[in-house]
Amino acid sequence: MALPTNMGARRDHFVTSLNPGFVAKPDTPPQRILDVAGGTGDIAFRMLKQAHVINENPETRVTISDINPSMLAVGRQRAESQLPVGQLASLNFLEADATSFRQPDGTITVESSTIDLYTVAFGIRNFTDIPAALREAYRVLRPGGVFACLEFSKIASTNRNPAASLFDAAYKRWSFSAIPMIGQIVANDRDSYQYLVESIERFPSQDEFRDMIIDAGFLVGGCGYENLTGGIAAIHKGMKPLDT
């Protein structure tokens, strides 16, 4: 299987691996998806297409949640200009902090055990309290619901794989030198691209993040993650136990 090597392909692979809208048996309640830190709609729009078009399930609904109202505004504008009417009607937006889906007055914005699929793509490394966000994901998911995260990660290097170790070292050197320079040239914004590289480096390894997911109460299968492009990015999944 060819692994995706660019951002768009990684997002596509992430969504198809989750296959939203697929129904294994009739009379299944409509699937509710919460896409967190998804303000611009990159994942949510793919989810709706997979569910409504590929799986022919127009009952699937997606809520985009983001703490940044400017990103949500971009998502709304893109949705209105890009989505068919049926998909647009199945999309909602929520301004919220992923560590606590509550308004300042304490009102809960996402009820417990109401979400079938919680997704976050290239966002969780920026959360102020990742364990709290994982616990909140566990709370809002129904029993049997799935937490799925696509995030930049660590090159899969081991002592028994010298080539991977060399790739890891070369990739880090390139990241810290080239990516901020590209940001300066392309966007006149070196600082944001420098932060990108540093935030990726600070993010836990695949095994460490898997253990954080388990600590939040989720069950994981196999090693708990799928490496993409040798570990430059990884998909993590966990299921809320059925007996909760």
From TrEMBL:
PROSITE patterns: SAM_MT_UBIE (PS51608), UBIE_2 (PS01184). Pfam families: Ubie_methyltran. Keywords: Methyltransferase, S-adenosyl-L-methionine, Transferase, Ubiquinone. The keyword Methyltransferase applies. One of its GO terms (biological process) is methylation. GO terms for molecular function: 2-methoxy-6-polyprenyl-1,4-benzoquinol methyltransferase activity. The keyword Methyltransferase applies. Belongs to the methyltransferase superfamily. LaeA methyltransferase family. This is Ubiquinone biosynthesis methyltransferase. It comes from Sporothrix schenckii 1099-18.
